[in-house]
C-alpha cells in the first residue's frame, strides 16, 4: 500500500514528511525506532516537522508503538492499515530487532467481572533465527 493511499484513507493532508515516514516503515521488514526512521528519511526535515508528522500518524493509528523496555521503542504500521489480525511481536536480544509475528495471534484473556480490555500487546523476547544461525556456524 502506498503512503498516498494511506493518507487519503484517513483524510490527512499529504506532506512529504508524512509520506516519507510511511514509506520508510513500509519498506522495512521490521519495526524501527524513531532514530532509525529519521536516518532513512529522504529529505531534510527539522525536528519539529518530523515529530509533529510522527505524532499525527500515531494519533490516527497509522503507525503503532511497540514498547520493548523503558529505553527502546519501535514503530510499525498499525493493523488497521495492514488489515492484519492482532499479533505478537518478537524482540531479538542479540540484534535488537523487532519483528511482527503475523502467524502468532494474540489470545483473548478472560478478565474478572467489571474489567474490559481495550487492547492486548504481546512481546516475546529471545534470539531470532538469523542470530541463532550465526551462532551455530
From TrEMBL:
Cofactor: how and how many bound: Binds 1 zinc ion per subunit.
InterPro entries for this protein: FUR, Fur_C, WH-like_DNA-bd_sf, WH_DNA-bd_sf
Pfam families: FUR
Keywords for the protein's UniProt record, in alphabetical order: DNA-binding, Metal-binding, Repressor, Transcription, Transcription regulation, Zinc
Record-level Gene Ontology MF annotations: DNA-binding transcription factor activity; transcription cis-regulatory region binding; zinc ion binding
Gene Ontology BP term (one): negative regulation of DNA-templated transcription
Cofactor(s) this protein cannot do without: Zn(2+)
UniProt family annotation: Belongs to the Fur family.
Protein name per Swiss-Prot or TrEMBL: Transcriptional repressor
UniProt source species: Labilibaculum manganireducens
Taxonomic placement: Bacteria, Pseudomonadati, Bacteroidota, Bacteroidia, Marinilabiliales
